[in-house]
Amino acid sequence: MDLETIEREAVARLQSVGSLQELEQFRIEYLGKKGKVTSLLKDLKNIPPEERPVFGKRVNELKEKIERLFETKREELQKLAEREAQERLRVDVSIPGARRKVGHTHPISKVLEEIERIFVSMGFDVVEGPEIETTWHNFDALNTPEWHPARDEHDSFYITKDLLLRTHTSPVQIRTMLERKPPIAIISPGRVYRRDYDATHLPMFHQVEGLHVDRDLSVAHLKFTLEEFARRMFGEKTKIRLRPSFFPFTEPSFEVDVFLPSHGWLEILGAGMVDPNVFLNVGYDPEEWTGYAFGMGVERIAMIKYGITDIREFVRNDVRFLSSY
Ligand code: DAH
């Protein structure tokens, strides 16, 4: 190949080079050990001696020219690559941030936190008890004898004859009284278990237990505390009423309703004055100590507060439901 052709070709090739990799290909092809220009120098020996100086000079000039063009191209591509790298690193602060989907508190946890906040502000401690409970703490100590329907296997999940998943949070009353000395003011939130499943019952649900033990407590203290709770939970104007009821561990016992203008009277919890037998079971003198207790279903409170009609929504894990509270 003659020098002019090689030169023309090289200039055209170089023009179409678009990246440093392509440029390297070009370098190997023309300026490398076996490159087109280098092989011209090897051809020198086939040329008549008198033409060699002129030819050699021309080849060297060509080589230098291509090297110059190559170098210019290399600088150009290098600058381009650097600029691109910088561009990739640039942060455009005007672009809206990427929104990450964050989860949020389950409505039951929300209501639990709210209940806790209200009672803590009135001076109650928050304590917890085990979900696997002895029949003694769950029933006997709470004055619930063998023959009581709540002890029937159909309502409870037994693990052994003497161990079960607690059916209510009331056994925490017993544990707390055995551990502490009065005066005592505690609430105890937690999971409880019963063999039930329909639109208003779950086999696992949540309760908050309350217990206040001191000298000279009366139904007035019970009523004030629960009224204050209801007003803070459901609104200033909320009224409550106490209906006579029965629980083995309180005497007298009440069912407590709240009045909501939108729903009328709704039952929200059970309560009463601690039964003297319960005090005797934990070694307290019923002549010295008095107390009131209450227990509320958290799902029920959440359903009333948010107008939810099917309790199973809480455990269906449907994001459309969960994210609307
Ligand atoms: N433990 C009862 C239940 O699960 C609720 C209850 C009623 C708790 C009266 C109390 C109480 O502390 O005094 O249905």
Task: Kindly summarize this structure in a few lines.
The protein has 325 residues and is of the alpha+beta class.
Question: What does the model show?
Answer:
This protein is α+β, with helices and mostly antiparallel strands. It folds into two domains: 3-89; 107-322, Bira Bifunctional Protein, Domain 2 (BirA Bifunctional Protein, domain 2), CATH 3.30.930.10. The chain is 42% helix and 21% strand. It is built from twelve helices and nine strands. The strands form two sheets. A seven-stranded mixed beta sheet has the order 1-4-5-9-8-7-6, sandwiched between helices. α5 (107-121) crosses α10. It starts with a helix and ends with a helix. The structure holds 3,4-dihydroxyphenylalanine (DAH). 3,4-dihydroxyphenylalanine binds next to β8 and β9.
Q: Which helices and strands appear, and what pairs or packs with what?
A:
Elements: H1 3-16, H2 20-31, H3 36-42, H4 52-89, H5 107-121, E1 125-126, E2 132-134, H6 135-138, E3 163-165, H7 171-179, E4 184-193, E5 204-214, H8 219-234, E6 239-247, E7 250-260, E8 264-274, H9 276-281, E9 290-297, H10 298-306, H11 313-316, H12 319-322
Parallel strand pairs: 1-4
Antiparallel strand pairs: 2-3, 4-5, 5-9, 6-7, 7-8, 8-9
Helix pairs in contact: 1-4, 2-4, 3-4, 5-10
The structure holds 3,4-dihydroxyphenylalanine.
For the structure shown, list the relevant keywords.
rod-shaped; alpha+beta; two-stranded antiparallel sheet; 325 residues; seven-stranded mixed sheet; 9 strands; BirA Bifunctional Protein, domain 2; 2 domains; binds 3,4-dihydroxyphenylalanine; 12 helices
